[in-house]
Amino acid sequence: MNQVNTTTAITQMQAISIGQIIMDDSNYLTLWGQLLQDDVWYPCDFVTTYEVMNTMLRFGQDKHDAVQMTIVKKLEDMRRIPDIIDLEAELGTAVVFDNLIFYMRRPCLQQDDNWEAYADEECYYIERVIQMPIVPVPPTLPPAARLQGEDNEKMEYCIQLLHDAYNLYLGFIEIELGDEAARMKAGLENDYKFSMAYYAWQLHTSNT
What domain of life does the UniProt record list for this protein's source (predicted)? Predict the structure, then answer.
């Protein structure tokens, strides 16, 4: 296989799995595997170059070191063309390539003077791959900091309630209600609570 002809439309995918790799004397690899679409795996074959395959392995280096070594070993010992690497047999499972964006085109067969797509969506030529952008995760506050923030919110809420109560007390005083009656209607008959409400009102007044 010295040349792959494809359609012009590019399809972007985010995950594939590879069970077997077919190698020949060209710069192309045929990959038997599956394609993830809408959280469902569908059987699919892929064609790509060694350069693209190396890129896929580089982006997932720790995960796919075994695949790279398997390919190198097969190239060194290859005695027939084409030859197959059975990843499922060698590694115990198909190899998943995810967290990548695959740019794929549908391969074509020549019919008379025209190139026509074949295999519907069961075969793609992988033109290139790029890493998916990493979305930064906001740092999680330590428990002590989270509790401190919650405590501050509760304190501010309490101060606001006390301020409002003292404001209500002043309103009753303005309409010439007696001090004792005004404190009772505002819920400030307790001397300690009355003092706290006064300081909350004073704090709010000094900040405005």
Answer: Bacteria
